[in-house]
Amino acid sequence: MNDIFLLKRRKLDSLLRLRKNTAPDEIFECPGCHGKISSDKLKKKYFVCPDCNYYFSMSPMDRIAMIGDADSFREISPDLRTRNPLDFPGYMKKLEANRKKTGQEDAIVTGVLKINGKKAAVGVLDSRFLMGSMGTVVGEKIALLAEYAAKRKLPLILFSASGGARMQEGLFSLMQMAKTCAAVEKFKESGGLYISCLTNPTTGGVSASFANLGDIIMAEPGALICFAGPRVIEQTIGQTLPEGFQRSEFLLEHGMIDMVCERSEMKNVISRLIKMHQRV
Predict the structure, then answer these.
(1) Neighbours of 179 (CB within 10 A)
(2) Which residues pair with 119 in a beta bridge?
(3) How far apart are CA 171 and CA 157, in angstroms?
(4) Closest by alpha carbon to 57, among 257, 269, 223?
(5) How far is the CA of 268 from the CAs of 18, 42, 222, in angstroms?
(6) Is the pTM for the entire model greater than 0.85?
(7) Per-block average pLDDT, block size 10, for the chain (280 residues)?
(8) Strand ranges (DSSP E) for 17-97?
(9) Are 237 and 163 contacting, i.e. CB atoms less than 8 angstroms apart?
(10) Strand partners, 37
(11) E strand or H helix at 113, and its extent?
């Protein structure tokens, strides 16, 4: 009974967080065209500007609502909390401020949902939480999710949105690169389907680890996908980079990813990929 109550409570918490994500009367200015758009209209358009097609960042719960069937999401390991392994000055205050701002315990939400009736394990990084940086909790939750998916023979879907490793955790953060790589490779060796969805931005240690190990790698239009950003590269080599360098379309053209997918199509594309894999 306690387990059933806990699952219902977590489901209710997730729904409440989803409803609180976007204030209904809030007005946003589009960074692309500087037009004004209401939060209600923006949500109906999958957080894409209807005038210039600029892609706004999405919270994990909004993205889960976008790809998942209604009321099908159940969060996994929601209570893991980062401690401050290096006693980094001011880190705990930053963590608490970001928890209050986002309603998340850390920079990722993991769980199980249904996509057009097909069950899948999903993890979504939150760029609002310390720029989606990967610390020990993010790495642990990805590893636990991969193990969960392998045991239950579920496809694994990870949405990346990150500035890279979390500097406040130093080597502990860098270790998560190897940890997440090992976890997803073990999952793939078990026969599982791993779909990696790259959003803006996917950079640093995340791009250099689990994000680019998908059986299928898709990206949102215009997403920055790289290890070091274009300004760093230009300053290092003293040359001007090609237009659109390190953006989704450039990477697709050069064979680095498999597809660029509009948000409005993502749910149906992912469900078709799952169906194709299950027929094999």
Answers:
(1) 18
(2) 114
(3) 26
(4) 223
(5) 21, 20, 20
(6) yes
(7) 42 46 72 92 93 94 97 94 94 96 96 97 97 97 98 97 96 97 98 98 96 98 93 90 92 97 97 87
(8) 27-29, 36-38, 74-75
(9) no
(10) 28
(11) strand 108-115
